[in-house]
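Supplementary notes (optional reading)

For those who missed the lab, this is the record we used. Protein: DUF6916 domain-containing protein. Length: 167 residues.
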Amino acid sequence: MMNRRDLLKKMGGGSLAGVGLGLGLGLGTPARAADAQAGVEAASGNAYRWSLEGARGLQGQQFWLNHPEQGAIGLTLDAVTAEPSAAPAASAADATSAAALKLAAAAAHTPKLEQFTLRFTGPAGASVAAGTYEMDNEVIGHFALYLAPDAKRNGATTYRAEFSLLV
């Protein structure tokens, strides 16, 4: 039995929607990420939820970007980098003040941010504009992701996806 990825490769990278998979959601142009993500998840039944730890487990894997004009473009997740969460720093003099104690109490009840960046590498000849695209991965399935072009490395096209999640 042929899987979807092999079928796309044999067809020269044709659009997922074009091969009759019912995935033509029009996500190749920039859109509100939450709406696009909900639409693709509803269509595919994908229940994957991003996290820094989960993303690190996907590093080195192949992803497929479904571009409306260029078809399927293979991307590799090369790096997952954690971004430090900014926390207000208190000086030693403030540590005993009532204001510092209130700030510390408020921080204990404030949701934490988990911030990280995914860096993908794609073929040199295929370049896409920043936007929300349908993506596919063998492990996590079908989903929407906002990608932005990044600096070229060794002639390859690179992209980044940035996450800032309340945890």
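If you only remember one thing from this example: The longest strand covers residues 71-83.
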